[in-house]
Amino acid sequence: MTDSTTDPRDAHREEGFPAQQQDQPGHTDETAPTPDHGEESYVGHGRLEGRKALITGGDSGIGRAVAIAFAREGADVAIVHMPEEQKDADETVALVREAGRTGVSLPGDVRDEAFATEAVAEARRALGGLDVLVLNAGYQHDIDGFANLRTEDMRRVFDTNFAGLLYSARAAYPDLEPGASIIVTASIQAFNPSPGLIDYAMTKAAQVAFVKALAAEAGARGIRVNAVAPGPIWTPLIPATGWDADKLESFGADTPLGRAGQPAELAGAYVYLAAAESSYVSGAVLPVTGGKPL
């Protein structure tokens, strides 16, 4: 987290990002520069003491930043991740354990309904309960014109970003108790969609509808449901999206703050939505966009 006197325009990297390419889902050690997840900066204050959290897509990027912040705030954390992301996952779990909390790695694909369902049960067993669910797993790819949208790519986006989210949430929901919190990683794309991310943007709009609908039902049980809507954030997903050098060089430059954000700059939003101080917040979409309006 940055000091309150830090100029937000240059709190992190101001210049663009170098040309690079990765295969999905992307890996931290292949991402240049390395994203800042708050490893050296996030300081906890016990705001989530005793909480038990499951984070899908928790191995890298936003998910890792949230895992670090939650652990340093006193929560035990389980992360779901793709099997090929085990190295990133191990590093994230190590950071959770360094904070003195229980850290659990659950490899698998949330597109698999059986796995997504069992992962929730396993997280609850391993942590001794579950009261915070962060639905963060995501996939995106660049589309060079709508006519070139391939069915297999579209299905992976839909199945990861929406079907996987529903499987995980549905498995967790019946056993959540009053005071529990569900937090979805939506996107500014839900409100200001880019043509090259049309299928991704559609899933993010659907996630916002999910948050609002479930919040209306879950409130009667004392369960809050909210979303964080990131703007351009530098994570391994970005160089794995398929963008060219010009797109990477200018990534985030069109925000009012003039730069892309870092995963660490989102962590506080998730902590707030999971913590007691947001007890009257449900059905909300919290933007962390560098000043871009939703």
Question: Could you explain the architecture of this structure?
Answer:
It is a single chain. By secondary structure, the protein is of the alpha/beta class. 34% of the residues lie in helices and 12% in strands. It has helices spanning 61-72, 86-98, 113-127, 151-172, 198-218, 245-249, 264-274; strands at residues 52-56, 76-81, 103-107, 132-135, 181-185, 224-230, 285-288. The protein has a seven-stranded parallel beta sheet with strand order 3-2-1-4-5-6-7, sandwiched between helices. Helix 1 runs parallel beside helix 2 (86-98) and helix 3 packs parallel to helix 4. The chain is globular, with a radius of gyration of 18 Å. The mean pLDDT is 93.
Key phrases:
294 residues; alpha/beta; 7-stranded parallel β-sheet; 7 helices; 7 strands; 34% helix; globular
